[in-house]
Amino acid sequence: MSLRAAVAALVCLALLVLAARLIAGFHDGGLADLLTILAFAGGSIWCALAAWTAIPAAFLTIIAAFAAFADSQDEEEPRRRGGSVGAAAFFFLLAVGLIWLAFACANRTAEAAAPPPAAIVEPEPASEPEPEPPPPEDEPEPEPEPVAAPSPPAPTPEVFAAPVYWEYMYPLILDGDYRRSPSMITRLDRLFPLDDPDGETRALLCGKAWVAIAGAASQEGPRARNERRARLRAELALAAAGRWLDAHAAEDCPRPALVGLDLGQHAATVEAPRMDGTDTAWQRQILIVTRMAAAEEMTGADKALEEVRAFYDDPQGRAALLAGRVYSRPAHIFAPDAR
């Protein structure tokens, strides 16, 4: 075995790894996502088939490169070397193409499963007490005591299920923290678009006393990682809302108090979920609770936290928020940190 043959094989291996990293980055992922696809957990069976087929193609690339530069005493060595180099180039392009196909297939499968937008759900108001019966006719009717005008009731919190959901593997977690990716940023921009073409974000955030945004993880995967991911999703969505409010601070949009709702991991309610996570996407949907501000009302962070806790502790409010979802523990309610 000659040194140049070994160097050629190592160069091919490095080029294959570099190409795989570039393809993964282009599709908003990393090499860890390729392992997810190989494990039949990142898309359909065709995505995994493309990824598995890329492995022998890469192996043949390295063998052909090694053979092209191996020592030989054959007089026809230049002709055979040209054939081996051509074979190495062919298998290299085949392996790269199959890796590209696997990532494109996995992304297309995940994007096709977005749940339909949900409408605003309001808790039903409490029933009014029945009026007391009038006094008997033979008794003199007491004169009514003067009473102060009743204060208007506080606005009822409203629940909004956003038409945006987290992919089950995002945000990617490394050493307990998250990795920024174009896919994650795109989803947050879709949640609170800065240009706000339809005025939906303004209607959702402006004129409110407080806005609470929930983060949750679906039932797949290890509990510890999903607990961290649920908290990160709430924090990232709150930060996106804060950026939108900062960008529109000069307009008539007083800043509401922001509150986070960490719902944790969803209970295992779907039997044999799909490996691409499409049938559990509703468990990761972004849920938002808001309360309109009364005239001249300024709500501080402590009061907002208290009201959100009262809303969640009320069975009627919690049912309106979760809409049939069942999480493994009670929600953690928190004030956002600056990230």
UniProtKB/TrEMBL annotation:
Disordered: region residues: 115-154
Record protein name field: Uncharacterized protein
Composition skew (Acidic residues), residue ranges: 125-144
Bias-annotated ranges (Pro residues): 145-154
Transmembrane segments: 43-70, 82-103
Protein keywords: Membrane, Transmembrane, Transmembrane helix
Membrane is among the record's keywords: yes
